[in-house]
């Protein structure tokens, strides 16, 4: 049986610690929460599809025109030989393969977690139009050109705050009021999804930016507290060496 660490394939940036993508941050949090040994290998944006095909990673989704869409995160587990794409599938794999570690998706909450993630994306969609232009400043040259070519811009900051306000109201329902996590006092994968998006904003906008400082004040500091509470699961970060 191999004792080599799990490989997490991630997208590099010029931001401190290199990691920035909300989707790969979900799995970075998850691996650290489970205390599973892993190492990062960095793949530039335009290389992702060819790399995934080369190692046998499945597409993360199918586009409307029927063509496959490849994205990161992808993990490769030397212990089992498995190569898993898509953050939710990775979370399910980690729970089933390492049952003695803390659960990312506690029993009976799979639909809840998935529904929350979809609803969160819908509620906070306006954020994308602000973070995308900022992300281009931290991407390395090859990924920056690809990113600009494949994304579109615009929308209003107040709509972003209103979207996060909707999520805040969900989390402040009477049974959950005052609790730090989506499942109250219990950490779950949905928290990592949310915190991954916040990492994206912090690194894309920059920690000293007015937009990030503004987000930290929203909803009585809920989002700042979430990032702080999950700091212990960020793990060691690394800059990419050329």
Task: Give the tags.
alpha+beta; 9% strand; Glutathione S-transferase Yfyf (Class Pi), Chain A, domain 2; single chain; 9 helices; 242 residues; 48% helix; 2 domains; Glutaredoxin; four-stranded mixed sheet
What layout of secondary structure does this protein have?
Blueprint: E1 6-10, H1 22-33, E2 38-42, H2 48-55, E3 61-62, E4 68-69, E5 74-77, E6 82-85, H3 87-97, H4 110-123, H5 128-135, H6 141-150, H7 157-171, H8 189-205, H9 210-229
Parallel strand pairs: 1-2
Antiparallel strand pairs: 1-5, 3-4, 5-6
Pfam families: GST_C_7, GST_N_2
Domain GST N-terminal: 11-102
Organism: Mycena sanguinolenta
Rg value: 18 Å
Number of domains: 2
Distinct helical segment count: 9
Order of helices and strands: EHEHEEEEHHHHHHH
CATH class of the largest domain: Mainly Alpha
Looking at the overall shape, the CATH architecture of the largest domain is: Up-down Bundle
Strand order of the largest sheet: 2-1-5-6
CATH topology of the largest domain: Glutathione S-transferase Yfyf (Class Pi), Chain A, domain 2
| Overall pLDDT level | 92
- For the termini, the CA-CA separation is 33 Å
Share of helix, binned: 40-55%
- Major sheet characteristics: 4 strands, mixed
Class by SSE composition: alpha+beta
- Identify the overall geometry: globular
Low-confidence stretches: none
> Beta-strand percentage?
5-15%
Q: How many β-strands, per DSSP?
A: 6
């Amino acid at each position: 049986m191999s004792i080599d660490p799990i490989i997490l394939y991630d997208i590099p940036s010029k931001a401190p610690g290199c990691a920035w993508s909300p989707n790969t941050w979900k799995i970075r949090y998850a691996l650290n929460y489970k205390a599973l040994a892993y190492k990062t290998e960095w793949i530039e944006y335009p290389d992702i599809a060819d790399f995934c095909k080369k190692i046998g990673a499945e597409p993360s989704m199918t586009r409307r025109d029927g063509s496959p869409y490849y994205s990161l995160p992808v993990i490769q587990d030397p212990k089992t030989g498995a190569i898993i794409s898509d953050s939710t599938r990775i979370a399910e794999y980690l729970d089933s393969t390492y049952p003695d570690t803390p659960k990312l998706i506690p029993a009976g909450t799979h639909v809840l977690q998935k529904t929350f993630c979809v609803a969160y994306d819908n509620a906070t969609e306006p954020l994308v139009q602000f973070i995308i232009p900022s992300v281009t400043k931290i991407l390395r040259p090859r990924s920056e050109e690809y990113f600009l070519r494949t994304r579109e811009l615009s929308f209003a900051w107040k709509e972003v705050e209103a979207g996060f306000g909707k999520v805040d109201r969900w989390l402040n329902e009477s049974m959950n009021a005052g609790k730090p996590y989506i499942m109250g006092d219990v950490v779950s994968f949905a928290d990592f999804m949310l915190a991954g998006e916040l990492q994206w904003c912090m690194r894309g906008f920059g920690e000293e930016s007015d937009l990030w400082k503004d987000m930290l004040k929203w909803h009585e500091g809920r989002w700042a507290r979430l990032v702080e509470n999950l700091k212990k699961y960020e793990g060691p970060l690394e800059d990419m060496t050329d």
